[in-house]
Design brief:
The structure is a single chain. This protein is an alpha/beta fold. Helix content is 46%, strand content 11%. It has 16 helices and 14 strands. Strands 5-6-7-8-10-12-13-14 form an eight-stranded parallel barrel, surrounded by four helices. A hairpin with a 2-residue loop joins strand 3 and strand 4.
Length: 439
């Protein structure tokens, strides 16, 4: 079998003093942190779309990527080469999972039937390669945004024929995900939103989106798919008003339509940025509401207002992300999927390894810092003390629902002298920095 990365060895852990760019400095998959190995905590995954179909093109230029598998004009042969290259890549990197959209792995045909036949042929190859390795499918999904048929959306399209096509496509993608043992299935509404209310029936579109999700839940039960359903919030791009803007928006939607018991969130760092939130905020909000499911690990450029999908290298951010994930009891069936792409100027195949090593090391270091921080309870104890007034006296009565406005007015009239204490933000940020610098 052809080797696509023949000059690149299997990536090993060499420790923080290593100068080898093709070695892990902090990610040691077998190192135990708490009660799990790093590999079990982090559950890293490769994103097929950016890594093996991305060309490096942007609005101002054509693709730049040099890829040894891009040497045929036959769409199916190219798809098979990409799959073989992907498994070689994951094995050399020690990456236990991968994720894909249906259209990433197999080309569309002239009809839906032909498209499904193409998909079946590639899935058969993937299944064979999975049996020969320890690589697993973290999640699958359907691309309901690239084809011109989705110009007005998919499940929220004004065209019922498009709704029907999207349903057929998701049906097939769910079947494929189940066949490959996928642990989750993701819904990302790339074009589920609107540009102007002058031509939009928002109520019908939201109702239809809910109908679509209920159909998916029903079909999962019918075929025995027990994986976790995930929704990936994203604001702005490409639609000005996205219905899946952020975790809070999606959660409100799910609760309104009785879907909240079936879905959790797949949270992306760069999407949080576009929504005007920090990555930690989105993870925290999902965690305290019991819907933190999986993560698309990347970062954005604070000077740019779009989804740059850069590889995560900010230790401050990865530490706070792992702090929330550890408090969540881990990611369970989810993982850290590198929905990240190398920069347009990083066009050589080896750059894919450099980029993933950087991201894996950043999260490994963040894991160790977050674990030590949680173990010390320095932040936890401070927060507990800050809200201690709700554990006794009138605060306890408020929490237990024993008082109303009249009782609280009486209390306030008798206790008009209020004394607040400092939030100590700068002190806490110093403590966080100490842990990041010491581990």
């Amino acid at each position: 079998m052809r080797e696509f990365f023949k000059d690149i060895p299997k990536i090993q852990y060499e420790g923080k003093d290593s100068k080898n760019p093709l070695a892990f400095k902090y990610y040691n998959p077998d190192e135990v942190v708490g009660d799990k190995t790093m590999k079990e905590h982090l559950r890293f995954s490769m994103a097929f779309w950016h890594t093996f179909t991305g060309t490096g093109s942007d609005p101002f230029g054509t693709g730049t990527m040099l890829r040894p598998w891009e040497n045929t004009s036959n769409a199916m042969e190219l798809a098979k080469a990409r799959v073989r290259a992907a498994f070689e890549f994951n094995e050399k990197l020690g990456m236990p999972f991968f994720c894909f959209h249906d259209r990433d792995i197999a080309p569309e045909g002239n009809t839906l039937a032909e498209t499904n036949k193409n998909l079946d042929e590639i899935v058969s190859l993937i299944k064979e390669l999975m049996q020969q390795s320890n690589i697993k499918l973290l999640w699958g999904t359907a691309n309901l945004f690239s084809n011109p048929r989705f110009v007005h959306g998919a499940a929220t399209s004004c065209n019922a024929n498009v709704f029907a096509y999207a349903a057929a496509q998701v049906k097939k993608a769910m079947e494929v995900t189940k066949e490959l043992g996928g642990e989750n299935y993701v819904f990302w509404g790339g074009r589920e939103g609107y540009e102007t209310l002058l031509n939009t029936d928002m109520g019908l579109e939201l109702d239809n989106l809910a109908r679509f999700f209920h159909m998916a839940v029903d079909y999962a039960k019918e075929i025995g798919f027990t994986g976790q359903f995930l929704i990936e919030p994203k604001p702005k791009e490409p639609t000005k008003h996205q219905y899946d803007f952020d975790v809070a928006t999606v959660l409100g939607f799910l609760r309104k339509y009785g879907l909240d018991k079936y879905f959790k969130m797949n949270i992306e760092a760069n999407h949080a940025t576009l929504a005007g939130h920090t990555f930690q905020h989105e993870l925290h909000f999902a965690r305290i509401n019991g819907v933190l499911g999986s993560v698309d690990a990347n970062q954005g450029d604070m000077l740019l207002g779009w989804d740059t999908d850069q590889f995560p290298t900010d230790i401050y951010t990865t530490t706070l992300a792992m702090y929330e994930i550890l408090k969540n009891g881990g990611l369970h069936s989810g993982g850290l999927n590198f929905d990240s792409k190398v920069r347009r100027a990083s066009f050589e195949p080896v750059d894919l390894f450099y980029a993933h090593i950087a991201g894996m090391d950043a999260f490994a270091r963040g894991l160790k810092v977050a674990y030590k921080l949680l173990e010390s309870k320095e932040l936890e104890n401070f927060v507990a003390e800050r809200y201690s007034s709700y554990r006794e006296g009138i605060g306890k009565d408020i929490v237990e629902g024993k008082v109303g406005f009249k009782e609280l007015e009486k209390y306030a009239l008798e206790n008009s002298q209020i004394k607040n204490t400092s939030g100590r933000q700068e002190m806490l940020e110093t403590i966080l920095n100490q842990y990041i610098l010491e581990v």
